Every structure is written in structure tokens, then in C-alpha cells.
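Long-time lurker, first post. I've been practising inverse folding by hand and with some scripts of my own, and I keep getting stuck on stretches where the C-alpha cells seem ambiguous. Below is the full C-alpha cell string for one chain I'm working on. Before anyone asks, I'm not after the true native sequence, just a reasonable design that respects the backbone. If someone could post their per-position residues I'd love to compare against what I wrote down in my notebook.
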């Protein structure tokens, strides 16, 4: 396997404090898209706690112009320079460095550091992009006060932005102008930001809880001037929520958001100047779906909440990434739950976790929430760090309670304001604020893998005692064969035959337990809990609200799952029981299909789905999710050997059968929630109605009734919102024929000038179930709407096909695998981060049949054999192919 030159493994165990600290930074940018000159003035001092080594500054893809030490120009003999470092020996205790470099934004296709995007010049510095701008100790535990001066052509770039508050600005005689920004709060260089462009600005204001007025500004391309309202409203909601929920107030005079078309991530929390992928900030009912509105609200909240959980208190090193990301994801999930439907939010969060993170835990890239080592840190911006990290914080909140958790966060923020800290510091604050020992709990940060809880129970009808035994285990993961028991909060309840709650008093308790749900603390490999005063044999409900990120093994027949689907008090567990019923039946049908036995849908499933459709009191959004079948990828994860063809056939059979048998109910519910004369609103009620309506339309289209095709086309034509338009288009792309081509052509002609909508057009075609989809994708890659250099285009077309169209990606001829390998090699030369993330489609390659495994191995080897792979791609391919 060809490796990058001397790939270096970075290990947490090797962490040492920095030898030198930076007190303040004065940056001067002479801005030009072709060649930008950067002058960096660093006031530095030796760290008394440091190892006392030479001063090492990081730098990549830089042209060094000059270095001055305390005003004296250094000769080449006075420093050492490599492709990645600048080493300065024998420096005084305190000194000033002035370094001048030149960089080339328009050549920067990696989109790290300072780069050119359309008419903008902007930055992305997390995790290690600042070293592409100037030489600097590019590590998060070096925090400094930044002052930034930008000089540029005024006509080309009338807007010049950076972190903090605007101090001064002026004009020069040559048609150029300048601005100076100052951020009074010390920050690591990964939070530095700069944006220059000719942009539309929408402004508002927010009054903090202490009475300070903060200016709010959103900057977008001028043609998107009408798409800022939702993001601005979401920002104000976020600011108020963080004050009320966590007591955290904003700390600068201005908060800015800029929308950028070419961006590797969703958004970046740079102090006071958040840079967003345009897809994550621009929204109007005509161009954005309900999911887009929801996602924008969540991401705006997430990046704003980072002002405290990530900026004011940051991570000491990149192994602590979940300290800021997991905690902040948990915060943005709570924010979204408070503003919308808490039940649906929890279902969606867990659905994503189980579909993506559980697969990561079961694959070659499995790693702890706090990793032990990495080669390329960009590869560890994963669902384990973010989503599982959020679940770990949520479990602490479950164990401590809402009040105790708030006491812990208050202590954490107050104690560590202005510091770079670790996950241990976070847990310690929780412990000390609540006098609660979380020593065992910290294994969630250090042990990889998804724990498995196996439940056994029996009922003594004479003594009225219910006995519940829970066992926990965790499978081996790369580098960790043996696991110690976790501390797992298990929220549970007991139901009688009518669905009423039964008492939850344990045998050694003197007083009755007066709540419907109880949190058990499972901290041993096996524990038994005995409940007294249980008057009848109960139905046990475990992991209510998904109280821990674990797999639950418990024997339930279809009748018991159907009972929980109908009677469970906890909305999440009600949905989960329905999903389990779907999966149990579908796995049985898959076995029948593999044995060439005729498929027959059990009546109990039809009956339960009918009951859900007829539940007039239920939240439409919850009903929509209960009627949504488990994905093919999730079904594959439930099988020892994933049978792609059987899964696809059976899932289609179940949907088609339900559609035919419940057609009248789906039709009635569609008509009930189809309100063409009601103007679009983004709120829980209207979102739920649209969601359920479009789920029903999907089932109706599965009947192959030509009238439903006309209904689908009519909805697309009459809709005043992208949610309904795109729902129709998604269904039409699976219908071969002239109507499909007409719908796709008409959609593109209408929206070809809107980049975010065009990405939706690419995605619906990538997810088509028709056999010519890969041929169509290859054709679309030559379309003017697609650029391999744009991460959003790549994710919309290539990424969606490879990750979310399993039946065709895993085609028997291996064409999907070869296609992905070819694209990764192209992308690796342009943007290694994007390339490495596309490799995730191969994560579970060992779960498939031998023939598919061999073809995927060959595809991975074809990548591994290439010369000069980036460290991003090299690390993942190396792990995938390891024995």
C-alpha cells in the first residue's frame, strides 16, 4: 500500500503542553484572489510549564517572504523550514515575531485556510487550516487575542469581515479600502475567520437578558436576499434559548453569519463570524423543504451555542473534540425539541444514531468518543464524536436530573471560561456540582463499540413480584478486545393489559415509587431488579426515550410489539415498537424469500398500521414516522450477512402490500391533510400535516394506479412550497416514462439558477430505483449544474447514490464500487476531506456476501495502490483493508 511520506500517528498519550504561548496576534491581509500577502505579528513568551524545546510553528502551502525577531530580519541560517514546520531555536523568554507569507486563494481546491469561492474569499480553519494562512502554533490549547486588518479592492470586495468588533475602517487613494477588527476574547487559531466579497446584508438586533443591544447580520449573495428571514429568526431564538436554558449571554457587539457556496462542512462557529454552507442557511418556502427549515434552525442554534460550548471554553487538543461537539449537539437537539415536537425530535435523532453511528461502531473505523490516536484529524469529525457524544452528555443529564445538570454546566462554564480543557474537566464539574461519582461512567469516553443489553424477566403471580435481569456486554472493536462494564441509565416502565402504568417500587424500598418511568442504573455485567406490588403480569417497557445508546435484546413476539405500538406511554418507545414489528416481520419474509417461499404479509401488521392511520388524536408527524418503513441500510445491519437483493425485494413487497390493503385509508388521510389553499407555514402542526400527507402519497403511488401518478403531478404543479413539490418529484423518478422525464426537465428549467435547489434535483435522481440510475449519474456529472470541485454537488449526487441507494450501489456486477473508487481518486487530488468522507460508503463492506466483499476489496485496493494518497484517504483505506 502506498502511503503518504512518513504518515505520522498522533497519540493522546503523547500530549505535552506547548513550549511557547501567544498573547496577541496582529494579522494584516493584503487581499487578492490570486496572491494574498499575510503579515503576522505574534507577541509570544516561553511557557513555564512547557518542555523548553525550540519554537515550532506549523505551516503548509506557504511562500515565506521574511521573518523578523524583535524587529531584526532573520537570515536563512537562523531557522529551519520544512513542508510543514518552521523551527526557531534559542529564543528569549519574551519576543515578537513578524512573519510575512504569500498564499494563493484561487488555487486552494481543498477549501482549507483562505480560499476563493465564486465572488468570495473566505476561510475555513478547523481543524488545521490556519497553517495554510501563516506560520503559527496551530493547536487549540494556544489561545490569543486577535486583531485583524484587511486591505482590498473596494469595488471587488466592498464587504471585509473578521472576528470580534469593528474598530476602524478607511479608504485608500488607489481604490482600495481597509478595515480593522478586534476580538477581545482569547481564542485558538482554528476559530479565526475572514470573509471578503460583494454581498447583500440583512440586519436585525437582539437585546440580551442584561439589556445589551447586539447587532445581528446575515451576509448572502445578492440573488439570495429573500432567503435570510428564517436563519435570522432562528438566531434570535437560539440566543434567547441559551439565556433561559443555560444562563449564557452573548459577549460581543455584533454576531455575523455568512453563506458560502463552497464549503467542506455544514457550518463553522468562528467567534462572532459564523461561516455557513449556503445550503444550511438559505431558505424560502418555494426553495427549501420542511427538513431544510428544520435543519437550518438546528444548525444556526448549534453554531451559536458553540459561543460558550466550544469558543469561550474550548478543547485542549483534538482528541477532546466531542467536548465541544457532543455537548453542543445535545444542546441543539434540546433547542429543537423545545421549539418543535420533542417526540419527533427524539425519534429523528435516534434514527440517525442507530442508522449511522451503530454502523460506524460495528466497522473498521470504530473509535471511542475520545479517540486514542489518529493520522488525520479531519477523519474524526464523525457520528461517534457528534451524535454518540451527544448521547453521552444526555446520559449524564439523565443520571443527575435537569437541576443537577444545570448546576454542573454552570460550574463548568464559570470554572473554565477562557480555557482549553478536556472531557475529564467536563465530567469533574458535573461530579463536584452534584457530589456524584462518575468514574465508571467515563468509560463511555474511552471504550468504543455499541453496548448490548440482554433482558430476561419473570413474574411471580402469588407474591406479585416482577423480576427483571439485565446483562450488558460490548463487542470487540479495533484495538479494544476486552471491555469493562459501562454505567448505563435504563429508563423503564411496566404496563398492565389495558396499557395502564403499574407500580415501580423495588423490593428493598420502604416507600412506593410514584412515577410512571424509573431510571435503573446498570453498572455490572449482570444485575437483577425486583419490583413488588405488581398485581398482574406486566408488559415491560425498556429504554424509554432511548435513555442510552445501546442495542436491546429482548424476546417479544409480534403480539407484544403490536400491543406496545398501540399502548406505550412513551412516544419514542411506541415508535420503536412499531419499527421492531416491521423489522421482525421483514426479516422473517427475507428468510422466506431466500428459501423461495411465497411471501405473505401477516395480518397483525396490516391491522396495526390501520389502527395508526385511524388514530385521530395522534400527532400527524408521529404517525408519519410510524408508517415509514425501516431503511434498506438499517435492515442490512440487522443481518449477519446482508442480502441486498432480498432486502430490496421484501421491503418493496411490504410497502406495496400495505398500500393495496390500506389504499382507502391512505387516500382518506391524504385528502384530510392536503390543504392546497392554506399558505405555507413553518411550524409543528403544518410540518406534521405535510409529512403525513406525503407518506400517504408514497404508499398510494406504490399501488401503480395511474390516477395516483396524476395526483402526484398535480401536487407538484399546484404546490406553493418545495416540501410538496420535491415529495412529488421523488416519487416520479421511480416511474419510468415520459412523465418522469418531463417532471425532471420542468423542475430543472424552473430552478436552474438556484444552486441549493439544483442539488435537490441531483439527489432525487441519485436515489432513483430504476436500473439506469448509475448511467444517468455519470451523465449528470457532465451536466453544467455539476462540479466535482463543489462539495455540495458531490454529496448530492455521488454521496447520496453510494450511501443511500444500496440496491444499485451494491449491484451484482460491482459497477457501483468501481464508480466510487474512481471518484475518490479524482477527489483526493482536489479535496482530500471530501474524498475521505465518501469512503464511508464502504464502511460495512465485510457484512456482505463473499462475491460483493471481493469486489469491494478490489475497489479499495485500487485506491490503496495509488501513489501520493492524501493522509485523509490513506488512513481510512488502511483501516478498511486491515485484517
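-- Answer (accepted) --
I ran through it position by position. Result:
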Amino acid at each position: 500500500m502506498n502511503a503518504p511520506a512518513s504518515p505520522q500517528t498522533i497519540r493522546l498519550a503523547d500530549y505535552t503542553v506547548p513550549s511557547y504561548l501567544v498573547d496577541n496576534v496582529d494579522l494584516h491581509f493584503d487581499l487578492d484572489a490570486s496572491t494574498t500577502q499575510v503579515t503576522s505579528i505574534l507577541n509570544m513568551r516561553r511557557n513555564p510549564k512547557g518542555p523548553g524545546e525550540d519554537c515550532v510553528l506549523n505551516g503548509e502551502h506557504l511562500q515565506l517572504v521574511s521573518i523578523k525577531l524583535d524587529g531584526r530580519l532573520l537570515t536563512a541560517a537562523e531557522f529551519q523550514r520544512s513542508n510543514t514546520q518552521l523551527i526557531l531555536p534559542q529564543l528569549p523568554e519574551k519576543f515578537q515575531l513578524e512573519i510575512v507569507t504569500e498564499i494563493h486563494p484561487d488555487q486552494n481546491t481543498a477549501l482549507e485556510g483562505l480560499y476563493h469561492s465564486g465572488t468570495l474569499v473566505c476561510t475555513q480553519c478547523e481543524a488545521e487550516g490556519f497553517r495554510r494562512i501563516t506560520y503559527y502554533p496551530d493547536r487549540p490549547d494556544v489561545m490569543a487575542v486577535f486583531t485583524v486588518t484587511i486591505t482590498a479592492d473596494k469595488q471587488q470586495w466592498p464587504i471585509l469581515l473578521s472576528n470580534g468588533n469593528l474598530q476602524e475602517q478607511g479608504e485608500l487613494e488607489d481604490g482600495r479600502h481597509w478595515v480593522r477588527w478586534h476580538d477581545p476574547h482569547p481564542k485558538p487559531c482554528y476559530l479565526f475567520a475572514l470573509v471578503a466579497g460583494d454581498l447583500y446584508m440583512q440586519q436585525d438586533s437582539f437585546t440580551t437578558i442584561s439589556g445589551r443591544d447586539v447587532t445581528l447580520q446575515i451576509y448572502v449573495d445578492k440573488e439570495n436576499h429573500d432567503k435570510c428571514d428564517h436563519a435570522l429568526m432562528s438566531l434570535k431564538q437560539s440566543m434567547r434559548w441559551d439565556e433561559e436554558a443555560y444562563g449564557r449571554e452573548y459577549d460581543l457587539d455584533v454576531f455575523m453569519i455568512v453563506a458560502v457556496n463552497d464549503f467542506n462542512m455544514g457550518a463553522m462557529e468562528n467567534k462572532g463570524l459564523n461561516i455557513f454552507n449556503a445550503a444550511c442557511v438559505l431558505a424560502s418556502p418555494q426553495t427549501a423543504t420542511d427538513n431544510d427549515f428544520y435543519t437550518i434552525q438546528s444548525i444556526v442554534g448549534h453554531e451559536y451555542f458553540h459561543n460558550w460550548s466550544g469558543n469561550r471554553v474550548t478543547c485542549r487538543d483534538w482528541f477532546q473534540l466531542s467536548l465541544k461537539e457532543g455537548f453542543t449537539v445535545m444542546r441543539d437537539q434540546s433547542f429543537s425539541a423545545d421549539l418543535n415536537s420533542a417526540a419527533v425530535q427524539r425519534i429523528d435523532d435516534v434514527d440517525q444514531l442507530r442508522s449511522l453511528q451503530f454502523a460506524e461502531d460495528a466497522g473498521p473505523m470504530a473509535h471511542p468518543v475520545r479517540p486514542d490516536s489518529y493520522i488525520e484529524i479531519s477523519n474524526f469529525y464523525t457520528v461517534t464524536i457528534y451524535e454518540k457524544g451527544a448521547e453521552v452528555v444526555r446520559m449524564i443529564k439523565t443520571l443527575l436530573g435537569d437541576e443537577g445538570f444545570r448546576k454542573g454546566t454552570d460550574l463548568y462554564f464559570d470554572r473554565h471560561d477562557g480555557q482549553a480543557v478536556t472531557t475529564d474537566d467536563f465530567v469533574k464539574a458535573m461530579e463536584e456540582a452534584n457530589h456524584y461519582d462518575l468514574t465508571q461512567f467515563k468509560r463511555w469516553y474511552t471504550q468504543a463499540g455499541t453496548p448490548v443489553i440482554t433482558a430476561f424477566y419473570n413474574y411471580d403471580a402469588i407474591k406479585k413480584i416482577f423480576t427483571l435481569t439485565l446483562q450488558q456486554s460490548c463487542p470487540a472493536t479495533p484495538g479494544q478486545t476486552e471491555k469493562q462494564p459501562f454505567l448505563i441509565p435504563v429508563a423503564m416502565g411496566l404496563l398492565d393489559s389495558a396499557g395502564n402504568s403499574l407500580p415501580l417500587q423495588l423490593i428493598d424500598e420502604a416507600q412506593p415509587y410514584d412515577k410512571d418511568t424509573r431510571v435503573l442504573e446498570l453498572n455490572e455485567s449482570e444485575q437483577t431488579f425486583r419490583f413488588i406490588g405488581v398485581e398482574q403480569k406486566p408488559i415491560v417497557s425498556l429504554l424509554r426515550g432511548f435513555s442510552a445508546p445501546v442495542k436491546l435484546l429482548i424476546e417479544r413476539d409480534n403480539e407484544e410489539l403490536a400491543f406496545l405500538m398501540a399502548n406505550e406511554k412513551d412516544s419514542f418507545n411506541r415508535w420503536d415498537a412499531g419499527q421492531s414489528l416491521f423489522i421482525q416481520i421483514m426479516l422473517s419474509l427475507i428468510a422466506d424469500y431466500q428459501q423461495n417461499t411465497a411471501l405473505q404479509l401477516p395480518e397483525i401488521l396490516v391491522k396495526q398500521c390501520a389502527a395508526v392511520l385511524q388514530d385521530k388524536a395522534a400527532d400527524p408527524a408521529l404517525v408519519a414516522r410510524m408508517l415509514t418503513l425501516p431503511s434498506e441500510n438499517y435492515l442490512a445491519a440487522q443481518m449477519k450477512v446482508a442480502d441486498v437483493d432480498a432486502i430490496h425485494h421484501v421491503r418493496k413487497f411490504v410497502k406495496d402490500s400495505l398500500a393495496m390493503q390500506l389504499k382507502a385509508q391512505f387516500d382518506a388521510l391524504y385528502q384530510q391533510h392536503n390543504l392546497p389553499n392554506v399558505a405555507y407555514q413553518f411550524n409543528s402542526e403544518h410540518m406534521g400535516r405535510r409529512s403525513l400527507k406525503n407518506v400517504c402519497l408514497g404508499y398510494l403511488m406504490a399501488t401503480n394506479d395511474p390516477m395516483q401518478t396524476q395526483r402526484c403531478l398535480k401536487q407538484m404543479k399546484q404546490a406553493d412550497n418545495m416540501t410538496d413539490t420535491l415529495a412529488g418529484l421523488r416519487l416520479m423518478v421511480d416511474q419510468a416514462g415520459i412523465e418522469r422525464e418531463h417532471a425532471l426537465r420542468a423542475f430543472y428549467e424552473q430552478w436552474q439558477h438556484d444552486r441549493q435547489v439544483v442539488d435537490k434535483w441531483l439527489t432525487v435522481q441519485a436515489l432513483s430505483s430504476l436500473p439506469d440510475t448509475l448511467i444517468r449519474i455519470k451523465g449528470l456529472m457532465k451536466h453544467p449544474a455539476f462540479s466535482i470541485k463543489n462539495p455540495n454537488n458531490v454529496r448530492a449526487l455521488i454521496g447520496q447514490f453510494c450511501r443511500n441507494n444500496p440496491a444499485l450501489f451494491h449491484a451484482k456486477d460491482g459497477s457501483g464500487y468501481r464508480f466510487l473508487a474512481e471518484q475518490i481518486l479524482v477527489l483526493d487530488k482536489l479535496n482530500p476531506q471530501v474524498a475521505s468522507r465518501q469512503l464511508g460508503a464502504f464502511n460495512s463492506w465485510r457484512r456482505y456476501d463473499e462475491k460483493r466483499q471481493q469486489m469491494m476489496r478490489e475497489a479499495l485496493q485500487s485506491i490503496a495502490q495509488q501513489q501520493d494518497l492524501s493522509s485523509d484517504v490513506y488512513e481510512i483505506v488502511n483501516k478498511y483493508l486491515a485484517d
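A couple of notes from the structure itself: The longest strand covers residues 176-187. The chain has a mean pLDDT of 97. Happy to go over any region you disagree with.
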